[in-house]
Amino acid sequence: MRIVICALFALGALCAQGTDDCKPSSLNIPGAPYPCVHPDRRVTFRVSAPDAQKVQVRLGGAHDMTKGADGLWMATIPPQVVGFHYYSIVIDGAVVADPATRTFFGSGWDNSGIEIPEASADAAYYSAKDVPHGQVAQRWYYSKVTGQWRRCYVYTPAEYDSNRTAKFPVLYLLHGWGENEQGWTSQGHVDFIMDNLIAAKRAKPMIVVMDNLNAVKPGGDASLYAGRGIISRRTLADVAPAPGGRGAGAPAAGAGRGAAPAGGRGGFPSNWGQVFTDMLLTDLVPMVEHTYRVAPGRENRAMAGLSMGGMQSFMTVLGNLDKFAYLGGFSGSSGGRGGFDPKTSNNGVFADAAGFNKKMKVLFLGIGSVEGPGTKTFSDELTKAGIHNVYFESPGTAHEWLTWRRCLNDFAPRLFK
Amino acid sequence: MRIVICALFALGALCAQGTDDCKPSSLNIPGAPYPCVHPDRRVTFRVSAPDAQKVQVRLGGAHDMTKGADGLWMATIPPQVVGFHYYSIVIDGAVVADPATRTFFGSGWDNSGIEIPEASADAAYYSAKDVPHGQVAQRWYYSKVTGQWRRCYVYTPAEYDSNRTAKFPVLYLLHGWGENEQGWTSQGHVDFIMDNLIAAKRAKPMIVVMDNLNAVKPGGDASLYAGRGIISRRTLADVAPAPGGRGAGAPAAGAGRGAAPAGGRGGFPSNWGQVFTDMLLTDLVPMVEHTYRVAPGRENRAMAGLSMGGMQSFMTVLGNLDKFAYLGGFSGSSGGRGGFDPKTSNNGVFADAAGFNKKMKVLFLGIGSVEGPGTKTFSDELTKAGIHNVYFESPGTAHEWLTWRRCLNDFAPRLFK
Q1: Dihedral (CA of B243, B246, B248, B249) sign
Q2: Is residue A288 within a helix (H) or strand (E), and if so which, with residue range?
Q3: CA-to-CA distance for A384 and A388, rounded, in angstroms?
């Protein structure tokens, strides 16, 4: 196969030559040759839309596609950073998923995903290896707080099945805004990361529980979590603007801008995460501890999350230090925008630094290096206030899943030791 | 909300009045009001495609949508049969998933799904109820036969966790052509069906293992399984015609036409399912029996599948009666097209009826009543030849998931007794 791709730019035509070295994305549906990734990380897309007037691929910005003599639209876009990216196709104004890839729930809908591969050595920690494998289970449970059946995913390590009496500590791990409880498995490869860490004896065997941030009381407004803003712009034109003054289409707090704002700032209602905390403590933790072989007590319980899930984790854990001893925020926590006051922020939980440090075994703040300085600022502020914390920076990555895979890979080995 | 929908037909305009009684499909993304289902099972769709010239919804046939003053395209289509249906949207010739619904892997890609609800009493058996719940686990394992990491899903009943020494029988359960190992959970509700049967003591607690039909040796051609025909027509124009002489775009054997043909007929290569059988016996069964608490022996092992998965199950089990004692074909088996000869068909496995009946505890043939007479014919032929079998017919349903949910609900209680 030898193809020539021409993309029209403002100043003329740029032709790029694609050859067999353009490899199909690992997330393509079986047999689909496009999208494919070139060795220099350019990406070529192809879409069949024979009667369309204008077709674009949206990945980062919008890239015009060109219709060939065969009626297929193609585009080769500039080199992309490594890792997982959501993207979509725009066909005469309709924003849809590329039918050539598997879909992934992000921004509130099932859109396309592409994986720009790293060097295999760099990707080894989240790849399948010949080590003992755990599993990720889908489990339904009834929540009294929300009055609904909810679904969570539960990773259990290989040791859970091979040692049938042992009890295990638990990490509660959250996705970000517009995503759901499947994200850490589908986009994050939580299972391979944990399998590999545990096999290498870098992390203790543990259970990882992944639930859905969306938690409202019966009749409550779930639009904050469902990604209504973006959906509204796309297909749900009659949906009212989201609450909190951000209006339709506003991205999640923290998205792409470094650390997330504290509860009550950035347009979130001040009590936005309280129902989730109630649900977690009332319904989820008891279900998990009743169903699985769980080691008891706060020192066997951790919580972390990415972006909005990091904000939620800080809210839940800092308000319940009697129940959790480990806390992680991946591109999202409760600070980084200035205004931090150790005496009063987060209801004064940091006021007694020595007391806090004694209770909190690990306070972890992770971020991608291109997300901005907010998380580093928050870490420095905490350190200045005498609060022990771990700052982790993923080189060259943004507000995306590769940052969060790396965060988990650094965070999990610190737990339950 | 009070809306008026106008659909243009050949003879003029038909206006249907929609009101609040049009309920969003349960498979919509959170917050999406469309597609919605009317009490008479008409369905209204809405798509944002502001610059498109022609938009259709494909569900059964193709239905033209109409662009409103707000730039949104809408259509209300005639009453649909109950149950799960795949569907897609066509925007200026591009076949894509409706961004307003969750996607489901069928026909080789992630397309849209809609659930036309049954009366709640009829749907109770596959709905979440206040009974002990098992879980469905995603598990990776390495296959020596295919030289690849494979993924299966494993349902374990609530008893698996509550009785931590008990051993359980296993049902191996397969999806159909163009689908994958996720189908029985996402489209089939296997977990709720089994939870409810077991809680009612109608079925024995059992493990259900759901794998992927796609199994080829290293370097082999997976196109038979990947739905390449349909994909080719849509986006993969340079893919060569599928093997077996059916050409691009041919539907799966058995799809929509009653019972599936025997191996070697209908364009399938005569040995098409042999690699899967080898993989199952060499890799999957040993992994399952090593990993889970499994009761030993053929009388604790069953296999069933739908459509192409039914064909596969017949091939695997009839060739390995020393390893399986229960067999189910849901809208797919190994007969029904004439030419059945009890002395020679399926390598003569039915020639000694008494011996066969002694070994095979349950031989189950299920079908939707509108799929055609093939399966009933096959059942009658078997009966005439003295082969005990169970014929189950789902009233009013087609080659779709509601037929297969009902088949499982009838089949599972017959196992391991």
Answers
A1: negative
A2: helix A285-291
A3: 9
Q: What is the 3-state secondary structure (H, E, C) of chain B?
A: CCEEEEEEECCEEEEEEECCCCEECCCECCCCCCCEECCCCCEEEEEECCCCCCEEEEECEEEECEECCCCEEEEEECCCCCEEEEEEEEECCEEECCCCECEEEECCEEEEEEEECCCHHHHHHHCCCCCCCCEEEEEEEEECCCCEEEEEEEEECHHHHHCCCCCECEEEEECCCCCCCCHHHHCCCHHHHHHHHHHCCCCCCCEEEECCCCCCCCCCCCHHHHCHHHHHHHCCCCCCCCCCCCCCCCCCCCCCCCCCCCCCCCCCCCCCCHHHHHHHHHHHHHHHHHHCCECCCHHHEEEEEECHHHHHHHHHHHCCCCCCCEEEEECCCCCCCCCCCCCCHHHHCCCCHHHHHHHCCEEEEEEECCCCCHHHHHHHHHHHCCCCCEEEEECCCCCCHHHHHHHHHHHHHHCCC
- The identity of residue A331, as a single letter, is S
Measuring CA to CA, which residue among A47, A54, A125, A119 is closest to residue A87? Answer: A47
Spatial neighbors of B290 by CB under 8 A, at least 6 apart, are none
B144 exposure class (CB count in 10 Å sphere: 0-12, 13-18, 19+) = exposed
Among A residues 10-39, those touching chain B with beta carbons less than 8 Å apart? 29-34
SS3 A38: coil
ipTM of this predicted complex?
0.88
Token representation of residue A371: 């997300």
For chain B, the first-to-last Cα distance in angstroms comes to: 53
The model's pTM: 0.89
Please name the member of A34, A128, A149 whose beta carbon is closest to the beta carbon of B149.
A128
Q: Which residues make Cβ contacts (< 8 Å) with residue B383, sequence separation at least 6?
A: B389
Residue A187 phi, psi (nearest 5) = -95, -30
The residue of chain B nearest to residue A158, with distances taken between CA atoms, is: B291
| Cα–Cα dist B27/B17, whole Å | 23
Backbone angle region of A371, left / alpha / beta, with phi > 0 → left and psi within -120 to 50 → alpha: alpha
Q: What is the rounded CA–CA span in Å between residue A417 and residue A414?
A: 7
> Would you say A82 and A116 are in contact if contact means Cβ atoms under 8 Å apart?
yes
> Can you tell me the distance from the alpha carbon of B238 to that of B219, in angstroms, rounded to the nearest whole number?
19
Asked if B187 and B153 count as a contact pair (C-beta separation under 8 A), the reply is: no
A48 touches chain B (CB under 8 A): yes
Residues 6+ apart with CB under 8 A from A143: A149, A150, A215, A279, A282, A283, A284
Instruction: Identify from A51, A95, A159, A228 which residue to disrupt to test chain B contact, counting B C-beta atoms within 10 A and taking the largest count.
Output: A51
A101 DSSP assignment: B
Closest CB from B92, B239, B293 relative to A91: B92
Q: pLDDT tens track of chain A, all 417 residues? A: 333 333 333 333 334 444 569 999 999 998 899 999 999 999 999 999 999 999 999 998 999 999 998 889 999 999 999 999 999 999 999 999 999 999 999 999 999 999 999 999 999 999 999 999 999 999 999 999 999 999 999 999 999 999 989 999 999 999 999 999 999 999 999 999 999 999 999 999 999 999 999 998 988 877 766 654 444 444 443 333 333 322 222 233 333 333 333 333 445 666 789 999 999 999 999 999 999 999 999 999 999 999 999 999 999 999 999 999 999 999 999 876 668 999 999 999 999 999 999 999 999 999 999 999 999 999 999 999 999 999 999 999 999 999 999 999 999 999 999
B contact test, residue of A146, A235, A290 with most B CBs within 10 A: A235
Nearest to B190 by CA among B244, B125, B275, B110: B125
